[in-house]
Amino acid sequence: MLKNVLTIGMMMFIAVGTMAQTVEKNDSVKNAKKTKEYQFTDVKLLKTTPVKNQSSSGTCWSFAGTAFLESELLRQGKPEVDLSEMFIVRHAYIEKAEKYVRMHGTINFGGGGSTLDVLDIIKKYGIVPEEAYKGLNYGLDIHRHGELDAVLEAYVKAVITNKNRKLTPSWKEGYIAILDAYLGKEPETFTYQGKEYTPKTFFDSLGLNLDDYVSITSFTHHPFDQPFAVEVPDNWAWGLSYNVPLEDFSRIMKNSIDKGYTIFWASDVSERGFLYNKGYAIVPDDKVKDMSDSEKARWTKLSEEEKQKESKEKSKKEKLITQEVRQEAFDNYETTDDHGMQIVGTAVDQNGNKYYKVKNSWGTDNEYDGYFYASEPFVLYKTISYVVNKNAIPKDIQKRLNLK
């Protein structure tokens, strides 16, 4: 879930600190927040752990995934746990390199990943707490993966283009040595709160059943009520998502929050209405694609403040999102796989329009301390897929999908 433009955006929002408290359910009337244009009132908030900062790394998928699982533990009444994002990243990078080499370099290779990567990696290798594996072995206290990603990509490209006409078994050892140098060696055992664990025994101690989680999407180029691998570059592992009509896609999300389950969300964030620093994401009815080429060029050069100012009047009315509109945006590359986040609640603005509250991983330096509000049209339009606890899915949809 990464674009060059997104990486630049992340760097704008780097903040070393994180939130000091856990977000709890609260009185929506007392939790109204304001911007120049919008006043948001939280309707329902679910428990979360503090906002983190992926800094200049393309690992949003891992940060969002650990945040999602941390909230699942809180929902179950268990103590707060800070899970290691980089433990997951390390193993995903190894598996991605293996597939890249096996596919002769014909799949995507980079820092991005999909929502399902987090679940798959933990199932195979377990997990560790953040204190046992920070993944910061290069002299910084924030994640900066520009050099690491460039070195890894150059290495695997050299492997597949070598002139020996045959691969040696040593290439993987060399690749892992790079990860050891930058992220640190994987702990075989560690002590946490006075007890010794391996990554697998620590995962077992959490009591999470990863088979409870499924990925949902909504596109018309595949049959409904069947799983398929969403065709985005960062789905390198070809993970499967259940395909449902847009109406059910929305019902599942609403039911999930209503029943107390957060959502692991993969979305496009390149739209002109995505104004993270201002704390909201909308779909203005006037679209960039309707501009002339010169207008588009001018728009892309505007600062976020200038975009916000120009959209002030027009953004009040949002585009009507249908299944066809959503599909067209995916087919023509307007909707792309940019970013992984966690949906943690619902809200309304001063006009009664509905929003989802989103926890990001770009630190706390924005209007809402690392959170923002995404309108329902934005979510329906820009979502690639999301992961939910299958128990949050309405029973009739569970039956159609044959979920047990």
From TrEMBL:
SUPFAM superfamilies: Cysteine proteinases. Residues 1-20 form the signal peptide. Residues 37-378 form the Peptidase C1A papain C-terminal domain. The active site is at C60, H339, N360. It comes from the Bacteria. The keyword Signal applies. Belongs to the peptidase C1 family. One of its GO terms (molecular function) is cysteine-type aminopeptidase activity. PANTHER family: BLEOMYCIN HYDROLASE. GO terms for cellular component: cytoplasm. GO terms for biological process: homocysteine catabolic process; proteolysis; response to toxic substance. Keywords: Aminopeptidase, Hydrolase, Protease, Signal, Thiol protease. PROSITE patterns: THIOL_PROTEASE_CYS (PS00139). It comes from Coprobacter secundus subsp. similis. The keyword Heme does not apply. This is Aminopeptidase. Residues 299-318 are annotated as: Disordered. Pfam families: Peptidase_C1_2.
